[in-house]
Amino acid sequence: MKPSHRFACALLLACLGGCQSTPAPSGPTPAAATPPPSPQPPPAGVTGDLRTLPALASRHVAARQVDVWLPPGYDSDARRRYPVLYVHDGQNLFDPKHTYAGVDWGVDEAMTRLIAAGKVRPAIVVGIWNSPKRFAEYMPQKAVNGESVATGVDAYPPVPARDMLGDAYLRYLVEELKPAIDRDFRTLPGRDDTFVMGSSMGGMISLYAIAEHPQVFGGAGALSTHWLAGDGAMVDWFGAHLPNPRTHRLYFDHGTVTLDANYAPYQQRMDAALRQGGYREGSHWISRVYPGAEHHERAWRARVDIPLIFLLGVRAR
Predict the structure, then answer these.
(1) Which of 64, 136, 180, 277 has its CA 20 to 30 A from that of 173?
(2) Percent of the residues in the chain that have a pLDDT greater than 90, as a whole number
(3) The pTM is what?
(4) 3-state SS of 109-163?
């Protein structure tokens, strides 16, 4: 195995169990107990107003850190409300010191730049940290067939199907976290202004979210979607549960080296299902291939502008 392949596999293996360099909060605090944190100087390496919420006690999954990035000018107009983008693996988005690989997605810099250029609407970005049960929480549960779920990495054994938590994670997202965000921040809470995004397994759970809750999410971004999980079962399941193309938008991409080198056949099947389902490429959905891009945060950082513009662009309503 080439060194680059070994590194990508090591990265995914760590993320299967939870890509956290900082432990999840051990003492969850009910969301209503304290108000949202006040503005503070951004941590070194972070651009703009980033607030860390008290851990939200959940009936469905373990509590975890949630970071909320607020667009420039949020505090200057108390009447203005904003669309919201929910992103999985939140520790990888804003601050490099929290990431597994030492490189963050630079979502804070990208949003600041794109807003200033008028390419995206000012929006709130909610970064949901993963837990040690990342694979179980991010695997689309209804796509699972059989008694175990293949991880898609030879060195990592299948996971028992009974351990899957995808449905519980979506309940946390839709029934607990989103209402808390809508209550404590000035959001536009409707479907047309609510989006979800992630990479690898985070892309899988983003697609599951928009399929299971099409009334909640109007768009989903799936970068380097790890179709190999579950032996590709999510391709057929999602193809049979597509949200309405007249009201929803989908973004897909992948690279061509390391783990991403395996994704093309699955993505091509997915693209065919989208065409058959009435999606118009470039308008309802985008599917991009990035030659030479690997399965890594630095690759997602290099192209994060593209899904942000597709989901949050001025014409994305």
Answers:
(1) 277
(2) 80
(3) 0.89
(4) HHHHHHHHCCCCCCCEEEEECCCCCHHHHHCCHHHCCCCEECCCCCCCCCEEHHH
pLDDT digits (tens, 9 = 90+) for 2-29: 444 444 444 554 455 544 433 332 222 2
The encoded tokens of residue 182 equal 């809508």
Q: What is the pLDDT of residue 316?
A: 45
- The CATH superfamily label for domain 3-17+47-312 reads Alpha/Beta hydrolase fold, catalytic domain (3.40.50.1820)
3-state secondary structure of 179: helix
Instruction: For residues 173 and 150, give the distance between their C-alpha atoms in angstroms, rounded to a whole number.
Output: 25
State the alpha helices, DSSP H only, in the chain: 3-17, 107-116, 134-138, 166-171, 178-184, 201-212, 233-239, 264-276, 297-303, 305-312
